[in-house]
Design goal:
Length: 164
């Protein structure tokens, strides 16, 4: 799951712009994981509460953070992949914010996957057979191995609707 957060001033982005950014980001992550893993929050901070360098941003600055949880980069092997992601993300922002005369800043943090739960369940690994159940259902699926069906078979008990 990535938890993606924008920090902006009120009405800095329209609903249509937020929806378009959300779709662009979700589509990118959905190449690797279920789209319902992608959480996006637009934090609208009052003009008197958002400062850069001691000065109010006045609706001309966007701060973005991405907390990666479902998948983390191997810091020794994935340097190139991380650069590609950062370049792609920078391009997304440049295309949308530069024409408005805005500046932006972003960073990525990685959380320990072992400390993450959805509906109190341990999410399956991305790419696993169990994850395929979640992708197919489009939602969280409670499952456990069914020993009577043999190895690799799963008995699905319940699906939880995460996004009503």
């Amino acid at each position: 799951m990535p938890l993606l957060q924008f920090y902006i001033n009120p009405s800095q982005l329209s609903l249509a712009e937020k929806e378009e950014l959300s779709k662009t980001l979700t589509d990118f992550y959905a190449q690797l994981m279920p789209d319902f893993f992608v959480d996006i929050i637009f934090n609208e901070l009052p003009y008197d509460s958002f400062f850069i360098g001691g000065k109010p941003t006045n609706g001309k600055f966007v701060r973005f953070t991405a907390d990666h949880i479902a998948v983390n980069w191997d810091k020794e092997k994935d340097t190139e992949r991380a650069k590609m992601y950062l370049n792609w993300l920078g391009g997304v922002f440049k295309e949308r914010f530069e024409p408005k005369g805005w500046t932006w800043e972003f960073h990525v943090t990685e959380s320990d996957r072992n400390l993450w739960r959805i509906q109190s369940l341990v999410p399956p690994l991305v790419g696993s057979e169990e994850m395929k159940l979640w992708v197919e259902a489009g939602n969280v699926v409670m499952y456990w191995p069914d020993r009577t069906l043999g190895s690799g078979r799963w008995w699905v008990t319940t699906t939880f609707q995460r996004n009503p």
